[in-house]
Amino acid sequence: MLLNTSDRVELDRAVAHYRDRYTVTGLFENELVDGIMDVVDALCVGGLKLHVATSKPHAYAGRIVEHFGLEQKFGKVYGSELDGTRSAKAELLAHILAEEGVVPSECVMIGDRKHDLIGAQANGVAAIGVLWGYGSRQELEDQGPDYIAEKPADLLSWIKAG
């Protein structure tokens, strides 16, 4: 436990401090992975519809997407609510599938953590693990993804082959 307390008031205060900093500074401390824009552009040119599915609150995720000038590349940014609603990836992906009216077998979830793969599998969506994020190869392999990409260009190879 980071704060070594279960005091709800203390925990709420810590979350408030975190959000104060994150909304002004933290969300802009991201960097795009080398080669990812080429992949996103190729997928868009190929006619695929892309969405962001993140456990981050969509209010923050949308600002990150805008910060990098990616809003024209993605149909919609989906994330959790500030109250924690849809923070579980399986619940979030079920929501996206319903909102977009898409068939799970025609979708792919690309993610760097086991939660992304678990959420995809719970919804009948193909799951690709990527090694340029926070999860380890072992974490991803343990979930039995359809594919593990070592670099962004690997995504295109797998999608074109499928």
From TrEMBL:
Q: Where is the signal peptide?
A: none
Q: InterPro entries from the entry?
A: HAD-like_hydrolase_sf, HAD-like_sf, HAD_2, HAD_sf, PGP-like_dom2
A GO cellular component entry from the record: cytosol
Give GO MF terms, alphabetically: phosphatase activity; protein tyrosine kinase activity
Highest taxon of the lineage:
Bacteria
Q: Name one Pfam family in it.
A: HAD_2
Which PANTHER family does this entry report, sorted A to Z?
5'-NUCLEOTIDASE, PHOSPHOGLYCOLATE PHOSPHATASE
Protein name per its UniProtKB record: Phosphoglycolate phosphatase
Taxonomy-wise, where does this protein's organism fall, top ranks first? Bacteria, Pseudomonadati, Pseudomonadota, Alphaproteobacteria, Hyphomicrobiales
